[in-house]
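Homework help board

Subject: predicted structure for assignment chain

Our instructor gave us this sequence and asked us to write out the predicted structure in token form, then describe one feature. I got the tokens but I'm not sure how to describe them. Can anyone check?
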Amino acid sequence: MAKKALDELLSDMSDVSLEEVEVLTSPLRTIKDGVKFIPTLKCGDEQLSGILLDRTKLKDFLQKVHHS
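My token output:
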């Protein structure tokens, strides 16, 4: 659910790129990045994570980090 909403939101932000990291094959990277929940979005020091990331939470996070 979050992936579909995220893809839709990012289609309007052509200057933003998404990097997906597979936690099973890159466990050291996830630890280094401070990922404790799946899914997690990270931009700089900002993180958004949770079991249910709805479209509104994703949009608010993207707007916050995109304009900072």
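Reply (TA_rk): Your tokens look well-formed. For the description, you could write something like this. The mean pLDDT is 90. That's the kind of observation they're looking for.
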